[in-house]
User: Which sequence fits this backbone?
């Protein structure tokens, strides 16, 4: 592991650049193997096709985790990120661990996903903007969250609301529905507040 300093550019990590080039080159063969090469055109709508393919290939988050180095999952990670990049104005990033500040070896922790050793996409120049495509793939196979609430995310719903802002707005509406003002008079946190549980490191 290495510590990222102030000169570190998360969009220029050499392993990230190599991986992106490798995945782009492998995409035509990857798409052909899915039998949906003509449909996987990087449009947001095509995420529904990939969503079905992922659900056919795995039944749990753990299976995606275990298979994350396989050609199918590697291709799916890149595809999801590319759809976000092309339609949300995002860029690929490889960011340090949010707690330790350390850069893990790229895709180097095997089945462990607590370490941020896989790439994300996010707004250019915004260190607090990040969505992990691997965790989007894992999330769609989750049926309940950590408190037992039903989860029915799809790749399309994640694309539409990558930072969980709609959920936060719904919660604010519910809080205001009793006709009483918030005690402190301040707005609830918005923006990236739901990111850690929604599409964080897992």
Assistant:
């Amino acid at each position: 592991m290495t510590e990222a300093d102030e000169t570190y550019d998360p969009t220029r990590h050499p392993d990230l650049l190599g991986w992106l080039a490798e995945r782009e080159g492998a995409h035509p063969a990857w798409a052909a193997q899915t039998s949906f090469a003509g449909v996987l055109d990087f449009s947001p709508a095509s995420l529904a096709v990939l969503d079905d393919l992922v659900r056919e290939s795995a039944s749990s988050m753990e299976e995606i985790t275990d298979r994350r180095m396989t050609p199918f999952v590697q291709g799916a990670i890149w595809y999801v990120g590319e759809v976000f990049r092309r339609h949300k104005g995002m860029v690929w990033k490889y960011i340090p661990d949010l707690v330790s500040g350390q850069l893990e070896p790229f895709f180097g922790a095997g089945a462990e996903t607590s370490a941020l050793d896989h790439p994300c996409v996010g707004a250019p120049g915004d260190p607090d903007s990040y969505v992990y495509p691997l965790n989007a793939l894992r999330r769609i196979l989750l049926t309940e969250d950590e408190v037992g609430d039903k989860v029915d995310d799809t790749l399309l719903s994640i694309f539409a609301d990558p930072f969980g802002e709609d959920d936060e707005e719904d919660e604010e509406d519910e809080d205001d529905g009793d006709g009483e003002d918030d005690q402190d008079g301040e707005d609830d946190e918005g923006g990236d507040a739901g990111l850690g549980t929604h599409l964080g490191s897992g």
